[in-house]
Amino acid sequence: MKPARLLVPLLFALASPGGAAVFREDPLPAPSRGPTAIAGTAQYGLWFLGSLANRIGRRNPDGSFEEFLVPTPDSGLSGMTAYAEGAFGRLGFTEFAANKIGRIDPSGRIDEFPIPTAGSGPRGIAVGDSHSFWFTEFNANKIGRLSLQGQFMEYPIGAGSGPVGIVWGPPAEDALNGEAWFTEFRANRISRLNENGRLRRYSIPTADSGPTAIVSVFGFGDPAIWFIEFNANKIGRITPDGTITEFSIPTPDSGPTDLVGGSDGIWFTESRANKIGRLNLDGTFTEFPIPTANSWPAGITSELWFTERDGNKVSRLGSDSLVAIGAGFSGNWDTDFELVNAEGRAVGMTVRIPGPRACGICFNPTTTVDVPAHGTFSLTARDVPFVPEGAQTFYVSLSLPIGPEELPTTRARIVNRARPTQAIEIPVVRLSTLERMNPSVLAFPGATRTPTAHSNLVLSEVGLVFPVGGRIEAFDAAGAPRGVMSFSLYPGQSVFLVDVLRQLGVAGLEGGQIRVTKTEGIGLLWGLLATLTDDGGVAVSVGANP
Length: 546
Description:
It is a single chain. The protein has two domains: 238 residues, no CATH class; 225 residues, YVTN repeat-like/Quinoprotein amine dehydrogenase (Methylamine Dehydrogenase, Chain H), CATH 2.130.10.10. It is built from two helices and 46 strands. The radius of gyration is 27 Å and the shape is elongated. By secondary structure, the chain is an all-beta fold. Helix content is 2%, strand content 50%.
């Protein structure tokens, strides 16, 4: 046997359509925080308003929470916005009762700026030109602007308007800069205002519709602005020329609260119905009930993280994935993957190859294939044209929208083309299961090194976000330590330790155990132990989470 010719690592990461709507709910460490507005990203930190506690909260990338007390007591936190990723690193928020605009930096330092007009009632806030904050003054019937240097400018828009939501939209046809688009709750209008004070207004067809939150989806190729009609239980769309289209939410009196745009439609929270809704690209709706009853979902981000005001949680709705880690190909060894598409429509599969380790998480060009409706797609590691034999790791991702579609039938195997009996199924596990486990220690029983058999270990970072480091230890059948070594894994990459017991300096072992401990990083660790025997046998065990 030549262990060094065994298998090159492979990671299959498959976004499954079945049970594809997966909720992750993270309870806040303290009760009665009442999280509402939310901004930021999971990778750099999610910020939210703890309205009942008068605090700004942050969910860190590792899942821990921090809170920062707003200096003004009972400030009446209302709206929140974030600068574009990496720009200045600050967030802005409105203090309705205190009549201030707040700003917080990554260290938790909070600056407050009193609005010149007393009792103006600031509500919505957005990032506009030159990284200034634009905000609505509900009581004062004004639109305000706070520059990066802390200077205010206010634009009166007329009595009885009651502006609430605001967003910085794409440039007008006669201007180079963008404009502030906002909702007029009392006047039942959508309006736009440029930095020179030019105001244009558009009446909403449904009377007393109660427009509140508003969002631009310009980045997804749609020049339209979308907004919520709270009283009318509708989602509205307005084009730059002022044409308004309305879409009625299926659940009556659902309480639409906040919305975001995405490549697959408009996502929104339904506070009274306790659901996350999606207005699909074809104009239909899909709704997803939240597991926690009466949670009152409020704010939502483009990554579909949302707050549960009464549930006191920061949660996420996402698609699930199937993860099967195995080998690529080397010599006669290969990895087979098969997907059976039970859907009545074709689905796209994207093959991506992780780049060099020095580049962290980056990818070479991708290739996409279609799995026909009610059809089968098969792939072997050697089918991917830009994987040199024995040199690269790669993974396959099946991209499908979040929805109620069936779970595909999947199969992954390690095979020996020269010895067909030496083949075994690779265990397939849901990524959501691994996220709940978040294993920091994996135990692999039955490790063996004898003259006729040896065990090897395949490890992967399957979260595709953060690198991890750790140590691998061997123990004999009595639990005594036999060897230890360190390792590091980058997002989306695997490592196949050819005869890991030999690398650990273990001369012989029967019925022992290999233990993997994550010592640094917050990525998701997963692996399997493969034991090969000279008589052609193969056994695979997945890591237990002791």
